[in-house]
TrEMBL record:
GO terms for cellular component: early endosome; membrane. Its main location: other. This is Protein phosphatase 1 regulatory subunit 21. The keyword RNA-binding applies. GO terms for molecular function: RNA binding. Keywords: Coiled coil, Endosome, RNA-binding. It comes from Falco tinnunculus. Residues 12-113 form the Protein phosphatase 1 regulatory subunit 21 N-terminal domain. Residues 145-211, 559-611, 695-736 form a coiled coil.
Length: 779
């Protein structure tokens, strides 16, 4: 316990010294920054001085070289002067007598020579001018001669070509005349033949009109007798008719929907990364949340940005549902694209999210501009981003407006006329290209902002990495939007031309209800055609069919549950990977800080340990007396309990553990505790997912059982109604048969009576005939 108290006291002293050193560290940081700025300015001044010194040295070298040349030149001149003086002394006497005569002769000669030179110069000028004028006239005359020769040659060529052309045209006209004469003769013959044929055709036309009139009367009679109702006359009823199935169009549309889904997935991932890294940036600049508390505005802004996944992920889900609704068997037009409404709603929710975070984002940029670290250039970049964020929200509002207009035909067809479909699609393409240009401007401004923030004195490695991540997410977002814009522009003709796809004889589907009814009729027709093509299978016993149905339902439920578990696990894996990257960055930053602090602690502890060694050397007897007690206490384990678990430290060595061993023990303990908690969390998650799947399967089984019970009760009611109806029919038929039998018996009685009467009449006639015959014989 005494050793533990000593360790605790030492730890408190170290903590106090660490706080003092940390306070001094801030002052030293400022001093280092100032000294760095001064050293940079001094380095620049030193460079300037070095350059000026080099220039002066070069000038000095050139001057020394020139001085040496001049010195040599002076020496040579001095030598020549000495020689000339020596010669001059000898010839001085003879030269004085002859110099007077020579000067007079020289002056006369010079005057004559000057006059001749001037006259010669004037003659040369006149000769040169005359020569130049002659050459000029000769050149002009030669040029005129060349031009005239070329004109003559051209005129001669034109005359020759015209003569050839006229001779050719005369020959052609003569040939054409002969051909036209022959052709006129053939045309006269053909005209005669045509007259004969027209007479025959008129006769045949009369016969055909008569035959068609008779057939038309017959067909009208058949239609009036056999066809009581023609549904193609009314658009409302014609919309219920199933149109011709265009399989190529459906496959093309499904392919386009698959490409759009891939592009939207890229857009969603880029938006998620952009919002997430923006949240990290808000927490570390201009104030780092790890060292100081950020402003309430930035706290609220980061809280809203943390909710971005709940608004961005539904865009991908809505596009996936729209892709799944487009199959090969359906008829896909705007009136039948019901899932487009859900995508429009998800886009509206994301637009509300952008509107919610826009004021906080703008205020955050303004707050960053007001901070002391913000320079003029950085403030200009922030104001440009301020304008770009407003434009970004406006672009999303425009896109949402056009997408909601496209979703109207499937819900409210009167909200958008069919003639406006083309303009809506073209406006969407233009908005996507504007969105792409805006994202280019944003990425350009943000790259300049990131380079300026790196020059800030308080810029950390965490800020630089976060800026790089934001720039990479902006580049990915720009690429995704560019792909979507080019894809939409390339397939704009297909989107606009495929809207007339509908029933035969009609121009459109009147309402979503009629389109839905048409799809149901189409499914029934397909099922009927399949049933006609399919051979009749052997019947299965009812009990076996029920057992198979239960097995099938359980297997489908388990498969659906497993698919949902796989989907949830994939989403969790994606989230965990994002968190892993985030915490890896945090761990790197923390590691760097820990190494710096360890170095500082080692430096401080080295001085402290020297003092303790001196104290132990002064008091050796006290140490010997307490040695046995300290050995016992050091060999026993020390336990410290907290909310995170239990930390056990065994001190078997003779020396007390230093700060590194203690930090390693704490680190290993925390890592083991985190691994244990994560394993428990994973087990709990897997169990909860398993129980959730089982509950869903049981709920589905219960709902299916209730549905089967309701269907069986309805069938039982129908069977009882059929039985009562059959009994009533049986009674009515029995009564009718009895009435018919009684009528037949009465009829038979009346016939018997008539027969007896006829027999009596026959007998009376026979008797009268016999009496008449007897009388005739007697006569």
């Amino acid at each position: 316990m005494a050793a533990a108290a000593e360790l605790q006291g030492k730890y408190q002293k170290l903590a106090q010294e660490y706080s003092k050193l940390r306070a001094q560290n801030q002052v030293l940081k400022k001093g280092v920054v100032d000294e760095q700025a001064n050293s940079a300015s001094l380095k620049e001044q030193l460079k300037m001085k070095d350059q000026s010194l080099r220039k002066l040295q070069q000038e000095m070298d050139s001057l020394t070289f020139r001085n040496q040349q001049l010195a040599k030149r002076v020496e040579l001149l001095q030598d020549e002067l000495a020689l000339s003086e020596a010669r001059g002394k000898k010839n001085k006497k003879s030269a004085e007598s002859s110099s007077q005569l020579s000067q007079e002769q020289k002056s006369v000669f010079n005057e004559d020579l000057q006059k001749k030179i001037e006259e010669n110069e004037r003659l040369h000028i006149l000769f040169f001018e005359a020569d130049e004028q002659h050459k000029r006239l000769e050149a002009e005359l030669r040029s005129r001669l060349d031009v005239l020769e070329t004109d003559a040659a051209q005129h001669q060529a034109v005359v020759d070509s015209l003569t050839r052309k006229y001779t050719d045209t005369i020959e052609k006209l003569q040939n054409d005349k002969a051909k036209l004469e022959i052709k006129s003769q053939t045309l006269e013959r053909e005209a005669k033949d045509c007259r004969l044929r027209t007479e025959e055709c008129q006769q045949q036309l009369k016969n055909l009109q008569a035959a068609l009139g008779s057939r038309l009367e017959e067909s009208l009679c058949i239609i009036n007798e056999k066809v009581p109702f023609n549904d193609t006359r009314s658009n409302r009823y014609n919309a219920l008719n199933v149109p011709l199935h265009n399989r190529r169009y459906q496959l093309k549309l499904r392919d386009l929907a698959g490409q759009a889904l891939a592009f939207v997935q890229e857009l969603v991932t880029a938006l998620l990364n952009f919002h997430t890294y923006t949240e990290q940036k808000v927490q570390i600049f201009p104030i780092d949340s790890a060292t100081d508390s950020i402003s309430p505005l930035n706290q609220k802004f980061s809280q809203y940005l943390h909710e971005n996944a709940s608004y961005v992920r539904p865009l991908e889900e809505g596009m996936l549902h729209l892709f799944e609704s487009i199959t090969e068997d359906t008829v896909t037009v705007l009136e039948t694209a019901v899932k487009l409404k859900a995508f429009s709603e998800h886009l509206a929710s994301y637009l509300c999210f952008l509107r919610k975070i826009l004021p906080y984002q703008l205020k955050s940029l303004e707050e960053e501009c007001e901070s002391s670290l913000c320079t003029a250039a950085l403030r200009a970049r922030n104001m440009e981003l301020h304008r770009d964020m407003k434009r970004l929200t406006a672009v999303f509002e425009k896109l949402h407006t056009y997408v909601s207009l496209l979703a109207l035909p499937s819900t409210k067809p009167e909200g958008l006329l069919r003639t406006n479909y083309n303009s809506v699609f073209t406006n969407i393409a233009a908005s996507l290209h504007g969105f792409h240009d805006l994202l280019k401007d944003i990425s350009k401004d943000y790259s300049q902002k990131a380079t300026l923030e790196q020059d800030v004195p308080t810029a950390t490695q965490k800020l630089i990495t976060t800026n790089d991540c934001i720039l990479s997410s902006l580049v990915a977002l720009t690429n995704a939007v560019g792909k979507i814009a080019s894809f939409f522009s390339n397939n704009l003709d297909h989107f606009t031309t495929s809207l007339s796809y509908g029933p035969k004889g009609g121009t459109e589907f009147i309402s979503p209800l009629s389109a839905e009814c048409m799809l149901q009729y189409k499914k029934k027709a397909v099922a009927y055609m399949k049933s006609l093509k399919k051979p009749c299978a052997d019947s299965v016993p009812y009990e076996e069919a029920l057992a198979n149905r239960r097995v099938l339902l359980s297997s489908t439920e388990s498969r659906e549950g497993l698919a949902q578990q796989v989907q949830q696990s994939l989403e969790k894996i994606a989230k965990l990977e994002q968190e892993k990257e985030h915490w890896m960055l945090e761990a790197q930053l923390a590691k760097i800080k820990l190494e710096k602090e360890n170095q500082k602690l080692k430096n401080s502890l080295s001085g402290h340990l020297t003092e303790t060694i001196q104290e132990h050397s002064v008091l050796p007897n006290v140490a010997e007396q307490k040695k046995e007690a300290t050995e016992k206490s050091l060999k026993e384990p020390i336990k410290s309990t907290s909310l995170i678990g239990m930390l056990t430290i065994t001190t078997d060595n003779e020396k007390a553990p230093d700060t590194e061993s203690r930090e390693d023990l704490i680190k290993t303990h925390y890592m083991a505790r985190i691994a244990e908690l994560t394993s428990h969390l994973q087990l709990a998650d897997s169990k909860s997912v398993h129980f959730h799947a089982e509950c869903r399967a049981l709920a589905k089984r219960l709902s299916l059982a209730e549905k089967s019970k309701e269907s069986l009760t309805e069938e039982l009611k129908l069977a009882s109604q059929n039985i009562s109806r059959l009994q009533d029919e049986l009674m009515t038929t029995k009564r009718s048969y009895e009435d018919q039998l009684s009528m037949m018996s009465d009829h038979l009685c009346s016939m018997n009576e008539t027969l007896t009467k006829q027999r009596e009449e026959i007998d009376t006639l026979k008797m009268t005939n016999k009496g008449n015959s007897k009388k005739s014989k007697n006569r």
